[in-house]
């Protein structure tokens, strides 16, 4: 009799445990669905917002055009406005495609210092126009290679440089620093190539630091909110990490780390 009671109690406890774990699993699934729903709602609202702005300009132009068709100032103003809005919408759609459809990664062994020259030359005019001084504190006396996609690395640098330019509206200084860092664990030592990009711009508020890599988050009047999200995705896809430190009205530092290729 005692054996049967113990068996019954064991079955009840087992069923209770299964019910509890099933409840936890369902709860987690519900939380995940809410996160997906929130992300979807955010994405759709941002897309609608970005497309609605140029449509509003077009609609206004269409309404007033019959009575102002001979007004050259009106035509000139709205022609420039519509052009800017359409250009902004095209830029947003390009970023959206990059975000939704990542390109395949073509890994290769590269020396970062050789790669750095190209994006700096491409943006040389932008730096001069915005009165930004470039300082390169790169350790060219050592030669290490990282295994990444060179085109995507250039896109990463361009995105971070553009972000720095946007933050230094009154001019400033952009400093690019490279170094090698050793990380020890109990079973091995790993080398990482470290790239720090520091600006003396407006900085980021503390409450926004955890959000800047989220899709569609932006504090810029003309930003898409996808640039840093795409950048983070590219870095992680190439085996790296990115961190940010910022002080409002002082500046921002983005730090990337990539594993160094070990010579055999």
Automatic annotation (TrEMBL):
User: In the UniProt record, does the keyword Phosphoprotein occur?
Assistant: yes
Q: Which UniProt keywords apply?
A: ATP-binding, Kinase, Membrane, Nucleotide-binding, Phosphoprotein, Transferase, Transmembrane, Transmembrane helix, Two-component regulatory system
What is this protein called in UniProt?
A: Histidine kinase domain-containing protein
One Pfam match, given by its short name, reads HisKA
Q: Name one GO molecular function term.
A: ATP binding
PANTHER family, per database record: PEROXIDE STRESS-ACTIVATED HISTIDINE KINASE MAK3, SENSOR HISTIDINE KINASE
SUPFAM superfamilies hit by this protein: ATPase domain of HSP90 chaperone/DNA topoisomerase II/histidine kinase, Homodimeric domain of signal transducing histidine kinase
Q: Give all residue intervals belonging to the Histidine kinase domain.
A: 46-262
TM stretches of this protein:
6-27
Q: Where is the signal peptide?
A: none
Organism, as annotated: hydrothermal vent metagenome
Record-linked InterPro entries: HATPase_C_sf, HATPase_dom, His_kinase_dom, HisK_dim/P_dom, HisK_dim/P_sf, Sig_transdc_His_kin-like_C
């Amino acid at each position: 009799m005692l054996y049967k009671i113990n068996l019954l109690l064991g079955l009840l406890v087992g069923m209770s445990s299964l019910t509890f774990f099933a409840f936890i699993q369902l709860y987690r699934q519900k939380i995940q669905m809410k996160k997906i729903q929130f992300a979807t709602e955010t994405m759709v609202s941002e897309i609608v917002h970005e497309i609605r702005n140029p449509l509003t300009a077009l609609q206004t132009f269409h309404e007033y055009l019959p009575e102002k068709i001979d007004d050259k100032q009106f035509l000139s103003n709205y022609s420039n406005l519509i052009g800017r809005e359409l250009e902004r919408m095209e830029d947003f759609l390009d970023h959206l495609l990059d975000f939704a459809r990542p390109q395949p990664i073509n890994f290769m062994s590269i020396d970062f210092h050789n790669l750095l020259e190209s994006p700096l030359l491409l943006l040389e005019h932008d730096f001069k126009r915005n009165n930004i001084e470039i300082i390169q504190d790169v350790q060219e006396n050592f030669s290490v290679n990282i295994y990444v996609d060179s085109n995507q690395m250039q896109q990463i640098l361009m995105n971070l440089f553009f972000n720095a330019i946007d933050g230094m509206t009154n001019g400033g200084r952009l400093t690019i620093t490279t170094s090698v860092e050793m990380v020890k664990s109990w079973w091995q030592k790993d080398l990482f190539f470290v790239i720090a990009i520091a600006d003396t711009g407006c900085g980021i508020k503390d409450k926004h630091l955890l959000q800047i890599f989220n899709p569609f988050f932006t504090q810029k009047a003309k930003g898409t909110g996808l640039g840093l999200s795409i950048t983070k995705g590219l870095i992680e896809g190439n085996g790296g990490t990115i961190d940010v430190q910022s002080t409002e009205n002082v500046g921002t530092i983005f730090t990337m780390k990539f594993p160094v290729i070990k010579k055999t």
